[in-house]
Amino acid sequence: FKAIAYNKQKKKCIPKVFGYPLSIFFIVVNEFCERFSYYGMRAVLVLYFKYFLLWDDDLATSIYHTFVALCYLTPILGAIVADSWLGKFKTIIYLSIVYAIGQVAMAVSAIHDITDTDRDGKPDNMTFHVALSMVGLLLIALGTGGIKPCVAAFGGDQFSDSQDKQRRTFFSVFYLCINGGSLLSTIITPIIRAQECGIHSKQSCYSLAFGVPAALMVVALLVFIVGSGMYYKAEPQGNIMLDVCKCIWFAIRNRYRHRSKQYPKRTHWMDWAEEKYDKLLIAQIKMVLKVLFLYIPLPMFWTLFDQKGSRWTLQATTMDGDFGALVIQPDQMQTVNPILILTLVPIMDSLVYPLIKKCGLNFTPLKRMTVGMFMASIAFVCAALVQIEIDKTLPVFPSAAQSQLKLLNMGNNPITVQLPGNETTELPGTMVCISSTIFFFFFAFCKLGLFVNGMNMMVNVTTPSVNFGLTEPFYYSNYSLIKKWKCCHFYVLVKKKKKQSCWLGHTFTTTELCFFIYSFQCLKSITVVQDIKPNTASMALQIPQYFFITLGEVMFSVTGLEFSYSQAPSNMKAVLQAGWLFTVAVGNFIVLIVAELAKLPKQWTEYVLFASLLVAVCFIFSGMAYFYTYIDPTEIEAQFKKKDDEDDDDDDQKSKPQKAEMEMVKRGSVNENDINQDGAGRERKVMRE
């Protein structure tokens, strides 16, 4: 009681502004900067894997989802450390330092000039960049996951019991900062990534795209430290998750020891923990286990949902982001999700759900979650249809077992080509012929440009964004980065008989790998031969799939947390939060397994596979929900407490005669030496009774 009174007195001493503890302003700013840091880094991560580390789509997707899974596993560790050892304040400080170091490591790993010894714009020691980035991601996962369960709870600790209204307002602002940081970062960091930076050569600026989130994380840490003297810092009180795990483990062991038929069965397997643990705790664990059982099918939803940042972003790289005055980067399409969340949540709560209720439909939380999963499956059907449209504009590239040779006739006259194992082919002048089974050319991101000089003299090629420099006769220039992301590979063939200066102007509007061959007479005519047609599928086609996945998130995630909290005892909220985060981690591991093992030939078939799996899970979950009985944990707890009080009263009534006899014995005795042997025997008899 003294400790409780002391803590209340400490909370009263916290400086207040407009009735709110001044300390929460530092916590809110810290959360905004941290969420900006996390989502900003994550927005460009899969493109960094593919276009900087040069991983294929499957490997990039696998590592991305492994990282996300770790980010949702480490909160369990952070909660245990904070509640049982360091306390929330120290846990946030220490893990934020780890977090910031990880972000800095990611920024450094994206500096190509560190290992670019030949200064051609490509890292020469990719192992260094891969190793450093993996260390950075591991530290980030430990940091962001470790502080996730601590910051919001630490903010709630700053309020006294009489500040319920202010506490609710704080949590509203707190989650607004989460969405605000997420939205701004997914807009800003892709723009930064699209810029060119470098010391010796210019490349996509992944280093700065990771550097800005790193700087924001350092700011978040400093802001949190500045408010240190104003915080109320509760001492660690022990972690309920550890108690739950110990109780469950004891029940399992005790049941195994008494597995023989000679021992009577008990109503529930958790009842085997009654020899050591309180009945109220056992009843609370039973309630939690009922909810956790419903969590079993839930990972499949997160399997689909978290592919916004991987497969869907990679899909956007093969689409046209030109909206006229606005050019959308592939990784900026993720901003549609937070925008729709801020729009759909109030609409669903204030309009859709009340309307359904007025129609007389019993739209229970579990039914909402089922519909939410179905919406997510529809989103992936939309993604499959979009992918089919994209595939119509994509060239047919050789498979892993094939290779490709492109022959370019730079002369005016046609030539005949005979390759071993292939038919004779006539190659017209200034045209391209495609054959197979000789060489394989891997072309990187469509920001690279290449010029071929078809003249017998030096040519100086310049574009608005890059100077290709002098190109030798009948030779090609180096690959160079084109400023507009939508431009791609192209060849320019220049034919001139007289030495003269002239300008070549042309607007490239393609969005994927393509080849252009130019022959022109100065300022008179330009001839363009297009070998691979540009992608014309607009990124706007992704909006329906983002709408359905966000609608599914609102109905599934928001409702799921609400349902879980309503069905769990007051002291078991952390256990359900840990279980919920665990389903997210498992869902991301499922993506990893499918990406590495399925190896489907067409991407749209993978989308259909995921949609089909989630539909199957919908039926399973709806069956489980049908047999679930809603409970009132508060009422059940009250019944156990009432029963315990009655048992205590009975014990008091039984102990009164014993206490009276004890008092009589004590009054008749002077001291220990005055008690004779018979009296001592009688006293021992009373004590035994």
Explain this structure to me?
There is one protein chain. This protein is mainly alpha-helical and 689 residues long. It folds into three domains: 12-238, Growth Hormone, Chain: A; 296-393 and 543-656, MFS general substrate transporter like domains (Growth Hormone, Chain: A); 431-526. The protein has helices spanning 2-12, 23-43, 45-52, 57-86, 88-109, 126-157, 164-193, 206-226, 240-257, 279-294, 299-305, 311-316, 336-358, 365-391, 543-566, 573-597, 603-626, 633-667, 677-688, and strands at residues 16-17, 20-21, 196-197, 203-204, 404-408, 415-417, 425-427, 432-436, 448-449, 452-453, 459-462, 467-471, 475-476, 480-481, 516-521, 525-530. The strands form eight sheets. The protein has a two-stranded antiparallel ribbon with strand order 1-2. Strands 3-4 form a two-stranded antiparallel sheet. A two-stranded antiparallel sheet has the order 5-8. A hairpin with a 5-residue loop joins β3 and β4 (203-204). The chain starts with a helix and ends with a helix. It is found in: Membrane. It is a multi-pass membrane protein. Belongs to the major facilitator superfamily. Proton-dependent oligopeptide transporter (POT/PTR) (TC 2.A.17) family. Residues 641-689 are annotated as: Disordered.
